Amino acid sequence: MDMNQKIKIADSVFAQEVDNEMVLLDMNSENYFGLDEVGKDIWNAMQQTGTLQEVHDAMLEIYDVEEDVLKRDIEVFVDKLLQSGLIELGEE
Fold first, then answer.
1. What's the Cα-to-Cα distance from 50 to each of 20, 46, 77, 89, 91, rounded to whole Å?
2. Among the listed residues 79, 73, 83, the one whose alpha carbon sits nearest the alpha carbon of residue 26
3. Domain limits for position 67
4. In angstroms, rounded to a whole number, what is the distance separating the alpha carbons of residues 43 and 55?
5. What's 67's domain CATH number?
6. What is the pLDDT of residues 4-42, one digit of tens each?
7. Number of structural domains the chain divides into
8. Domain membership flag for residue 1
């Protein structure tokens, strides 16, 4: 996965933080998704940054984790969001 790709959250997604979790609602499909604390932090970083690399860098500031492990975890998370239609990736 190209870490320089820009992240675009779908216009149909509504996100609400509840306690230490994030609830995402896709208004088009009426499906909702629950994110744990780490998923919430990644989602928040996606809203505040432009690229996957910037999300990666932001997570390195929060979590004590090896860079390659974090990169794989972000890729898996992003793939799930892509498959669910919650985000799109594009050129920088």
1. 24, 7, 16, 10, 11
2. 83
3. 6-90
4. 9
5. 3.90.930.60
6. 999 999 999 999 999 889 999 999 999 999 999 999 999
7. 1
8. no
